[in-house]
Amino acid sequence: MKVKNSVVAVENLEESVRFYTDILGMEEVRRFSPVPGLTIAFVKGEGEATMELIEGEEGKKGLYMVGMEIEDMDEEIAKLKAKGVQLTRGPIGKPGGPKIAFLKGPDGVEIELIQS
What is the mean pLDDT of residues 5-21? Predict the structure, then answer.
């Protein structure tokens, strides 16, 4: 089984799309409004999985965490810091094991960066 998508209920769709595209380097691949008052944007990074960002979903808010696999932790952290993003934890890891680091996105979603 592999992750296909994550769904995040957001308060401000434009702010969230900008974060995932401009800061994390993903691209917006689709946007639509299935019913009045509800707008959905799909963003995608490398691989097949997408994130579904939904604005206007009553009674739902946020997502706890999204894990994103990266190639080079040091390089990714340098890119993020150049864009004004601060890590909330990490990077941490044991020699020979995966490295992980965390940052917060819009609406409190925690982003876990994973270097295998």
Answer: 94
